[in-house]
Amino acid sequence: MQYDAIILAGGESSSDLKKIAPYDNEALIIIGNYPMIYFVYKAVRQCPMVRKIVVSGPIDALRNILPREEELFFVASGENAVESFANAAEFLKKEGTTEKLLIMPTDIPFITAEAIEDFINRCHQSEHDFYYPLTSKEVNEQAFPGVRRTYVRLQDGIFTGGNLFLVKTKLIEDILDLLMQLVIRRKNPLAMARLFGLGLVWKYITRTLKISTAEKRFYKVTGIRGKAIISPYAQIGVDVDKPSDLELAQQYLGDKKF
């Protein structure tokens, strides 16, 4: 089974990142020999489970970076990640697309085709509407010692959110507002819990929250069957949004050549 993929490449670089990498758009930041978007594109294209790729961002700049091919398309970005996603999804809707869409940001240059394929295969093990990856602190620090991430302590372990999503295409229009709220709160676990009620907040504070409990609450509030996928690939859980992340990327990817 194959899926169409959306890469969100319209995000602005943080002010701290601009101090060491003077690019307004994070997709264009140079890591070693390539712009950041190129690492993400290559991983997605090398994954045999991906069909069409739509990149939402600065079209002219991206066309100068990425190769010309039949299954690669570009659309303009929106005011935020959710609008950019909506633009790409609308394009695919007109083209004819797959039952589920794979979505990712451009600031995950560590991502690999193997990590993407593993995530999709784990999604295949259950039938849900929305899939979201988690990686454990142990996995992240083993792969990238000293990496700084926002972690959540659950009964199941200590996790950070990943940067791949698989969602049923027919639900996209109904969940855009919810996606906006999730994007706004993604770096603040307490704010994320608050979105789904005080009971979840209390369980989070007292460290008694379980993944299965959060999934059930997510369904009760949204009517969407969400599934957390625990990935063994740290590359899914490490992004580049601050200077220390960029230094890590230069250290691990600076010599890479495609």
Order of helices and strands: EHEEHEHEHEHEHEEEHHHHEH
CATH topology, by name, is Spore Coat Polysaccharide Biosynthesis Protein SpsA, Chain A
Q: Helix amount, in percent?
A: 40-55%
Q: Outline the low-pLDDT stretches.
A: none
CATH C-level class is Alpha Beta
Structural class: alpha/beta
Name given to the CATH homologous superfamily: Spore Coat Polysaccharide Biosynthesis Protein SpsA, Chain A
Alpha plus pi helix count = 11
Give the structure's gist in a few sentences.
This protein is of the alpha/beta class and 258 residues long. Helices cover 42% and strands 20% of the residues. The protein has one domain: Spore Coat Polysaccharide Biosynthesis Protein SpsA, Chain A, CATH 3.90.550.
What does this structure look like?
The protein is an alpha/beta fold and 258 residues long. It contains eleven helices and eleven strands. The chain has one domain (3-253): Spore Coat Polysaccharide Biosynthesis Protein SpsA, Chain A (Alpha-Beta Complex), CATH 3.90.550. The chain is 42% helix and 20% strand. Strand 2 and strand 3 form a beta hairpin.
